[in-house]
Amino acid sequence: MEAAAPASWTAEAFLAADQASFGPAWRYELVDGRIVAHAAPTPAHGAILAGLAAALGVRLRGNPDGCRPEMGSGTAPTQAQSTTARIPDATIRCGDLPRVVFEVISPSELGAWRARDRKRRDLQEIESIQEIIEIYQDETAIHIYRREAAGAWSFEAVGGAISVLPLRSVGLSIPLQEIYEFAMPGDGAS
Questions:
Q1: With 0-12 CB in 10 A as exposed, 13-18 as middle and 19+ as buried, what is 109?
Q2: Can you list the domains of the chain with their CATH numbers?
Q3: Residue 57 contacts by C-beta under 8 Å, 6 or more apart in sequence?
Q4: Using CA atoms, how far apart are residues 117 and 28, in angstroms rounded to an integer?
Q5: Nearest to 85 by CA among 22, 128, 35, 147
Q6: What is d(CA 77, CA 187) in angstroms, rounded to the nearest whole number?
Q7: CB-CB neighbours of 29 under 10 Å
Q8: Which of 33, 157, 158, 176 has the fewest CB atoms found within 10 Å of its own CB?
Q9: Chain segment 91-148, per-residue pLDDT in tens
Q10: 135 with 103: CB under 8 angstroms?
Q11: Which of 95, 108, 93 is nearest to 39 (CA)?
């Protein structure tokens, strides 16, 4: 069920709308002016987000830059009118601006690499985002995309339960074991 609205939405109108009016799906995003529904996350996906939220909450409490963790909040480029607004799984927002975004990558998303690449490119267009973190659901592995000098993006892979996720743009490090604490791959969660 789609809300009665313009044939093509703007990011500003989409982010201001009550998502319940779009239909019964768990979450929605705006892609090229079209509202796209997303299914609810699996238990393993939710467990990874719970571990991430706990780790971020502890580390960002009292942050002098006003950085805070958020789950499921929307973001879009601000320099030009956009018809795309993404809803990352988690965000670190400093003041009013998103700085780090997190996406949990499910096994079904691995086969949809074009859609995943498109989402990453959409997030890279958001001026304030400095790091995009892809957390893999079925293995202890994280991909980090970082904005470098002159706007270029670098890539770093981190893997293994004893590894650490470095979030340079906010001066934090999080052991992967904390992120995967409630859903360690191989524990039967899927």
A1: middle
A2: 43-179 (3.90.1570.10)
A3: 69
A4: 18
A5: 35
A6: 39
A7: 19
A8: 157
A9: 999 999 999 999 999 888 887 888 889 999 999 999 999 999 999 999 999 999 999 9
A10: yes
A11: 108
What's the per-residue H, E or C state across the chain? CCCCCCCCCCHHHHHHCCHHHHCCCCEEEEECCEEEEECCCCHHHHHHHHHHHHHHHHHHCCCCCCEEEEECCCECCCCCCCCCEECCCEEEEECCEEEEEEEEECHHHHHCHHHHHHHHHHHHCCCCCCEEEEEECCCCEEEEEEECHHHCEEEEEEECCCCEEEEHHHCEEEEHHHHCCCCCCCCCCC
pTM of the model: 0.88
Q: What is the 3-state secondary structure (H, E, C) of 82-110?
A: CCCEECCCEEEEECCEEEEEEEEECHHHH
Would you state the structure tokens that stand for residue 8, as one six-digit string? 């093509």
